[in-house]
From TrEMBL:
NCBIfam families: DodecBact (NF043052). It comes from the Bacteria. InterPro entries: Dodecin, Dodecin-like, Dodecin-like_sf, Dodecin_bact. This is Dodecin. Pfam families: Dodecin. SUPFAM superfamilies: Dodecin-like.
Length: 69
């Protein structure tokens, strides 16, 4: 088994579609500038409403990426 070191990055994705879509958007954007993304943890979910309808989702993630040797 290999030994790895990970660093954490915190990002927030937003989407008018769903919380899952907000997660996907956050991971896709983070992967543009950070290599070796390996896991994520949802730390916060919130949204914007107009009393009845959900207008926008925001999901904050801790993203773990492996530090290269």
């Amino acid at each position: 088994m290999s030994e790895h070191v990970y660093e954490l990055l915190e990002v927030t994705g937003s989407s008018p579609i769903s919380s899952d879509n907000a997660v996907q958007i956050a991971l896709q954007k983070a992967s543009v500038s950070v290599r070796n993304l390996e896991w994520f943890e949802v730390t916060e979910v919130r949204g914007h409403t107009d009393d009845v309808d959900i207008l926008h989702w925001q999901v904050t993630l801790k993203v773990g990426f492996r530090v290269e040797d």
